[in-house]
């Protein structure tokens, strides 16, 4: 056989082997997720889902009711964005590790707080013990637009070191609000 034909077949075989490997990994992930829940929890979920679907078929909401709910939710979201100044533009989550009592997920989050853009990347470790779930943030990486301010750089470095997301969001909200006031004031005097 011609070498080029053999090479084409070998390339196709390698591509198929790679596809098989990816599908096997995906299947194993799904299997791990299904073993995360006990049979009792799965049965409860199925029964709950069946009750919900029965209720939906017997008491379907009208289209106008759904539109009213959507408008209410949009109003609430708009209020929260105005109140906090945060507007999230993207979020992605990838499960890195999953077992019965432990889950590790990698999150990427980007958005704006008033006029300051930010990006976060972190890992979230969730551990489940009987009734209690605890979460730990690690590998926090923050990218911000206004790194020229040394105080912001120190704050970002400290937050990355301690992995405290709540402190980051609270402080960013206050800082961004006053940053916006300063910016408008300086524009007024120009």
UniProtKB/TrEMBL annotation:
Residue runs in coiled coils: 6-33
Coiled coil recorded as keyword: yes
Gene label: Cenpp
Superkingdom per UniProt: Eukaryota
Keywords, alphabetical: Coiled coil
Lineage: Eukaryota, Metazoa, Chordata, Craniata, Vertebrata
Name the record gives this protein: CENPP protein
Any Gene Ontology biological process: CENP-A containing chromatin assembly
InterPro entries listed in its UniProt record: CENP-P
This protein's GO CC annotations: chromosome, centromeric region; nucleus
Pfam family, one: CENP-P
């Amino acid at each position: 056989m011609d070498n080029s034909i053999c090479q084409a077949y070998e390339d196709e075989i390698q591509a198929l082997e790679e596809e098989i490997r990816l599908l096997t990994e995906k299947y194993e992930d799904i299997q791990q997720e299904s073993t995360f829940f006990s049979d009792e929890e799965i049965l409860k979920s199925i029964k709950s889902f069946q009750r919900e679907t029965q209720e939906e078929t017997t008491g379907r909401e009208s289209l106008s009711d759904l539109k009213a709910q959507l408008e209410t939710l949009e109003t609430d979201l708009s209020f929260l964005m105005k109140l906090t100044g945060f507007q999230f533009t993207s979020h992605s989550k990838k499960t890195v590790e999953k077992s019965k009592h432990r889950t590790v997920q990698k999150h990427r989050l980007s958005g704006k707080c008033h006029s300051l853009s930010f990006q976060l990347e972190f890992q979230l470790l969730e551990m489940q013990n009987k009734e209690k779930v605890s979460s730990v943030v690690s590998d926090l990486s923050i990218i911000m637009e206004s790194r020229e301010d040394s105080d912001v750089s120190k704050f970002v470095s400290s937050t990355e070191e301690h992995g405290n997301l709540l402190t980051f969001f609270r402080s960013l909200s206050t800082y961004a609000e006053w940053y916006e006031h300063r910016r408008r004031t300086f524009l007024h005097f120009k």
